[in-house]
Amino acid sequence: MLRRSRLFGQKIRVTFSLPMDEPPGVVSVVGDFNEWEPGRHELLPRRRGDRSISVTLPPGVHRFRYLATGGVWFDDEGADHTDDRGCVIKV
């Protein structure tokens, strides 16, 4: 699930969230906003029973995917668009 929140100026905070245990193990969001570096934006457990991370993004179109333990790549069905190269979000 994706949530967008406007910050000061033109920047947008995007919160990436997933259920606590689907998929199991560590999950990070990787994309053009973090040079596709695994582990840089790891989803963290929250009290409400999910796990999430918020990233501040400049306006524009950004690509991302999730990477789970064991090298499992997957997409977010809440993205604006998904293709064979992953997810697209417009902010």
Describe the structure.
- The protein is mainly beta.
- It has one domain: Immunoglobulin-like, CATH 2.60.40.10.
- The protein is built from no helices and 9 strands.
- The strands form 2 sheets. Strands 3, 6, 7, 8 and 9 form a 5-stranded antiparallel beta sheet that branches.
- The model has no long low-confidence stretch (mean pLDDT 93).
Give a short synopsis of this structure.
The protein has 91 residues and is mainly beta. The chain has strands at 2-6, 12-19, 27-31, 44-45, 50-57, 61-68, 72-74, 81-83, 86-90.
**Which CATH architecture?**
Sandwich
- The portion of residues forming beta strands comes to over 45%
* Discrete helix count: 0
Total number of beta strands: 9
Class derived from helix and strand content: mainly beta
Q: What is the CA-CA span between the terminal residues?
A: 15 Å
CATH level-1 class: Mainly Beta
Average pLDDT score: 93
SSE ordering:
EEEEEEEEE
Contiguous uncertain segments of 5+ residues: none
Helix content: under 10%
What is the fourth-level CATH superfamily? Immunoglobulins
Tell me the layout of helices and strands.
Layout: E1 2-6, E2 12-19, E3 27-31, E4 44-45, E5 50-57, E6 61-68, E7 72-74, E8 81-83, E9 86-90
Antiparallel strand pairs: 1-2, 2-5, 3-6, 4-5, 6-7, 6-9, 8-9
